[in-house]
From TrEMBL:
Native source organism of the sequence: Celeribacter marinus
EC number: 1.1.1.122
Broad class of enzyme this protein falls into: oxidoreductase
Transmembrane segments: none
Designated name of the protein: L-fuco-beta-pyranose dehydrogenase
A GO-annotated cellular component: cytosol
Amino acid sequence: MTRAKTVLLNHRTKQPVRLSPLGFGCAPLGNLYRKIDDTQAQATLDAAWDAGIQYFDTAPQYGLGRSESRLADALTRFDAGTLTLSTKVGRLLEDCAIEDVTPEAFVDVPQKRIVFDYTYDGIMRSYTDSVARLGTNKIDMLFLHDIDAGTHGTAGVEDKLRELFSRGGYRALTELRDTGQISAIGAGVNTWQICERLLGEADFDGFLLAGRYTLLEQDPLDTFLPLCLKRDVGIILGGPYNSGILATGAIDGARFDYAPAPDDIMQRVRQLSEVCADHNTPLIAAALQFPLCHSAVKSVIPGAATPHEVRQNVEIFETAISPALWLDLKSHGLIRQDAPVPQDAP
């Protein structure tokens, strides 16, 4: 199943971007929350490739360049003809004093600080820097990284959008696409609303959306996902576990949207778990497979830090789920009635 191909088609330049439905999110390779060594990182990437995963997503932010550099080593072993690669632009990495390092959620990072820049020069420099770290100019997709209010604040995002559209950032992306240096452009963000706004402003091919269309959240069904279908825009779904709770269940310390889960979310996850248990299905399997039921969603990309976690992701992804489970989740009001599920397919 991981080797099957779906297509996020750039119908503007006729360059198809082929995605394995189960992709690999490379944030953990940047030492997300915990340090891993280079040997473990390479073994994890090899396990993903050997399992049939052929789409890899990374970003300069992940470990302040460490994720891209580690992926570069693996790319020398993988078949460039079948591999699909995406990274992100908008964050520049600059040398700095040790007290100015921007580690965010990453540990043991290089001595760098992050500077946001969505102008023409910023996008071009970000792309060139990523090419150097990755050791390849075969980057299929470029995503504007975190150009949303969650990162910049309500006023700040307006400034960043002005950089994008008035100071040449979008022009840089389209130049890279139109000259064939990349095949598709989009944004990698944590909210669907900014994606919908970007679609109203310009011509994008797809979005990497962290969460927001999961067993716990289906608001994009109202306007955003129908717009994606109308515009032939593909969605890559990161964060299918809502930053943890749909993987762990409603345990003490469970996290939702990168914070301790509130009581109402804990209760809803308990109910989801009970219905899944009635169908002998792990909650995590339903969470991973649910987003792909919508035809706008082309790939889901959980991360992994060890070969064992890769194998777990593949096993979860390939778990057979009874159509009756989805019907029961709807009958209990736990997912929306209009949420596509497998039995809706012709």
